[in-house]
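Hi R.,

Here's the chain you asked about this morning:
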Amino acid sequence: MVDVRLRRVELPPDVTGPVYARMESERRRVANELRSLGAAESERIRADADRQRQVILAEAYSQAQKIKGEGDAKSASIYASAYSGNPEFYRFYRSLEAYKGSLRGRGDVMVLDPASEFFQYFKQSGGGASGMPRATGGR
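And here is the predicted structure, written out as tokens:
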């Protein structure tokens, strides 16, 4: 005899069931292990993404506050410069803003003493036909 080849090997019927059960449990164990590794990796990725999100949001908020502060400072500087150019006009302008804010609706009613400071620009004379202070200065 020179060559022997097996075409098929069969286990006895009383051993086949337990062998397949053992193979199935081993495959189940490997699958569960892979699932748990995947879940752990998923949690790690999510935690890293959440951390990066927080860092990005904090940096964006910081940058926004810085830009807002610079804008507020520039606005205050412009306002101060304009106010110093013609302080009487800006007092008048703020009074107009106060009138507008106080009397918003058609049915609004205010009971005030006509001699109150609130009406100082309405009772002035000599400021032109409208009662507005005259513009002064070169601006």
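One quick note: Residues 94 and 100 are 10 Å apart (CA to CA).

Cheers,
M.
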